[in-house]
Amino acid sequence: MPEIQQPQPADTATPPPFRIDAKLHQILYKDTSKPTTIDSDRPLESLPVPVYPQHPDPKEMTKSEYQKLNAIRTWKTWGAPYFKSRWHSDELRPLIPYLFTEWKCNLDCHYCWSYNNKVKGMTEDVARRSIDWLHSIGSRVIALMGGEPLLRPDFIHKIVNYSAKNDIFVYLPTNGRLMKPEVIDKLGDAGLATVNLAVDSVNERKALPKALKPIRPYFDYLVKRQRYYGYTVMFNINITRINMDDVKELTEIAHDAGIATDYHINETPMMEQTHFKHLDENSTYLTPDDWSKVDDLLDYLNDKRSQGYKMANPKQHMEDMKTLMRGEVPAWDCRAGQNSLIIRTDGTLAPCFPMYSATHDWGTIGNHKFDVGQLTEMKKDCSKHCLSTCNYILGYCYDTRRVLTWAAKQAMHGFKGATGSF
Ligand code: SF4
Ligand code: SF4
């Protein structure tokens, strides 16, 4: 494969430290409001130590066995909870809760404010109580989050094992640097459902270290073992100023490996992130000079979708990225704080990942304080500056007619895997 010539970073102006309305920012950032700890009167809980291997010498599944396993798992962990959430629409029912087990990372992607190596990781007690609480309110999915979750692979092994035994779909995002074959085997054996492998470049570079080349042997092993354990794999790619050719190349690599892709548009911080080091002169930020190039890239990707490439983002999401990079998107139906939430490393809650640093008090595990009035008022502004992929997809799919149409389409194809996105 020829070496890709990357554009040289140009001078970029320093963006504002946050993008939401200043008044809203002040409301969400009051020093005193956030709870600092969860109740500590109870005895500490722990997670069971997994038996390994549970399935010695696993056999490779046929394609149809693999598809059947995933169709059943999808129904049990996404389909049934979705319909129950529609039935109990006045209750907090997170279809996608995020568990931030870590806020530390082993890399330093220059656009990323989502890590701070001074923050202590989640304890086993908080993890166990989070999983039990989420299960009790009808969640059957746990999306692990960081930082880099695999900084503590044994801890993640325990979480995957405990969750899978409770019929929970576990989603693992990772930069792949620590995803060694023995880690893949342990997590696969424990019942991991999907791996979201975050890569922005083919070859590593300083501003975008999440690259495929340094982890290629791990990636190949991960793909190869899918049908032994039943998990799925996808690439998660952030479109920045300096990786547009890589985005195309990674899309082809994913297609050749038979896995899906998921795209994001690079954004400056929505809320103030005092620990973030790269706000100034950041070579990854998109400038007005890049907009037409990104438009072309998004059109190119949408064409690939119509050629049968598997993509997680709905087509409309890719169209809305064009308006987001120009400063504002039309308000959309965000379900954060109602059908999704985040649990920070210390067990406190927030509606979504962009609000990780907010000090507003949304409660703690087992004692949430989400208020639909407050969320609705807040989203009138923040949804104009945000296209949070998972929340967007959730909002887009939170439409029974769309879900039934999609399910009918899958049924016509005999549930032989995802045939097209929503
Ligand atoms: S690997 Fe992920 S968490 Fe770590 S710096 Fe990069 S984007 Fe942030
Ligand atoms: S639109 Fe939703 S996901 Fe985005 S910042 Fe607002 S509450 Fe969070």
List keywords for this structure.
single chain, 422 residues, alpha/beta, TIM Barrel, 8-stranded mixed sheet, two-stranded antiparallel sheet, 13 helices, 10 strands, 37% helix, 11% strand, globular, disordered N terminus, disordered C terminus, binds iron/sulfur cluster
**CATH architectural name:** Alpha-Beta Barrel
Superfamily at the CATH H level?
A: Aldolase class I
Alpha-beta content class: alpha/beta
- Widest sheet, order of strands: 6-5-4-3-2-1-7-8
Q: If you compute it from the alpha carbons, what radius of gyration comes out, rounded to the nearest whole angstrom?
A: 21 Å
Descriptive notes:
The protein has 422 residues and is of the alpha/beta class. It has one domain (63-412): TIM Barrel. Helices cover 37% and strands 11% of the residues. It is built from 13 helices and 10 strands. It has helices at residues 22-28, 63-87, 124-136, 153-165, 181-190, 216-224, 226-229, 244-257, 291-306, 315-325, 372-382, 389-397, 400-412; strands at residues 96-100, 141-145, 169-174, 194-198, 232-239, 260-265, 340-343, 349-350, 363-364, 367-368. An 8-stranded mixed β-sheet has the order 6-5-4-3-2-1-7-8, sandwiched between helices. A two-stranded antiparallel ribbon has the order 9-10. Strand 2, helix 4 (153-165) and strand 3 (169-174) form a beta-alpha-beta unit. Helix 4 (153-165) runs parallel beside helix 5 (181-190) and helix 9 runs antiparallel to helix 10 (315-325). The chain starts with 21 loop residues before the first helix and ends in a 10-residue tail after the last helix. Residues 1-11 and 414-422 have low confidence and may be disordered. It binds iron/sulfur cluster (2 copies). One iron/sulfur cluster is lined by residues 270, 334, 336, 351-352, 354-355, 379, 382-383, 386, 388, 391.
